[in-house]
């Protein structure tokens, strides 16, 4: 950037680029609908979950509720940022990529969404299963690392190989999350008496979360076998609808109907917090 290129000029270009991206999203019906449908569902889910919270009194159930309520709230904010063009940008794909040299619309804000919302999903599941704090911390950190390295894979334009390197690193962190969900967390849920709903939510989470790296690999960010940004965006959005809102509804409905079991797990489970003096 030349020294004479001042802050005002840079800001103007940034605003112009954001305006252009916003217009591109608005004019692409397939792409924009994939975002606005999620905005509407996130808003409706938030209102529904708040109304479902009435009558919940135990501290552990309230904590699960709070973590779960953050899921649609985060999605509402992040999808609005995507639709506005705030967290979307044009990047030029590196040489070797099927779309090498072409500018592609990157919805990098999705990775920020996942970095904030998926830890809430895992926190709610961990509290439900009454896992120990060390395991809960490890899995949540691995999850955030998975999202951040996934963001790196999506944004790297210097090397096509390095995109896949970061993709592999992200998948390695994902493997840590999967291992915990499929082994020790399942055992903890059995001990806590919440295995019935935990097994359902775990299966839902594992199957749907496996869909995200598959969409990345097949979509415009990876092999570009699906070359449409709108189709790729809808694939991510459809996964989000079930992995977040349906997941949250099933969890909160069960907690409301089985609050005594949840409270008992917190009082006597392996991961229970010590009582206050």
From TrEMBL:
It is found in: Membrane. It comes from the Archaea. One of its GO terms (molecular function) is photoreceptor activity. The chain crosses the membrane at residues 29-51, 63-91, 111-129, 136-158, 164-182, 203-227, 233-252. It holds the Pfam family Bac_rhodopsin. This is Bacteriorhodopsin. Belongs to the archaeal/bacterial/fungal opsin family.
């Amino acid at each position: 950037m030349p020294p004479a290129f001042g802050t005002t000029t840079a800001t103007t270009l940034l605003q112009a680029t954001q305006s252009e991206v916003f217009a591109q999203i608005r004019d692409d019906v397939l792409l924009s609908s994939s975002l606005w449908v999620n905005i509407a569902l996130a808003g409706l889910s938030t209102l529904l979950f708040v109304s479902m919270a009435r009558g919940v009194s135990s501290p552990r159930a309230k904590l699960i509720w709070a973590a779960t309520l953050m899921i649609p709230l985060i999605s509402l904010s992040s999808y609005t940022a995507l639709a506005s063009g705030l967290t979307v940008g044009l990047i030029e794909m590196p040489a070797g990529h099927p779309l090498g040299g072409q500018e592609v619309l990157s919805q990098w804000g999705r990775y920020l969404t996942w970095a904030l919302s998926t830890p809430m999903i895992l926190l709610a599941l961990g509290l439900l299963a009454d896992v120990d704090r060390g395991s809960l911390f490890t899995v949540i950190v691995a999850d955030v690392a998975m999202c951040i390295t996934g963001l790196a894979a999506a944004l790297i334009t210097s090397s096509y190989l390095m995109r896949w390197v970061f993709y592999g690193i992200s998948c390695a962190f994902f493997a840590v999350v999967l291992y915990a969900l499929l082994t020790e967390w399942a055992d903890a849920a059995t001990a806590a008496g919440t295995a019935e709903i935990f097994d359902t939510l775990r299966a839902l989470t594992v199957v749907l979360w496996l869909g995200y790296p598959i969409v990345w690999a097949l979509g415009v960010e990876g092999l570009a076998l699906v070359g449409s940004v709108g189709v790729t965006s809808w694939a991510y959005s459809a996964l989000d609808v079930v992995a977040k809102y349906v997941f949250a509804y099933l969890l909160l409905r069960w907690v409301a109907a089985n609050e005594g079991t949840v409270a008992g797990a917190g009082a006597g489970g392996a991961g229970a917090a010590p009582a206050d003096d």
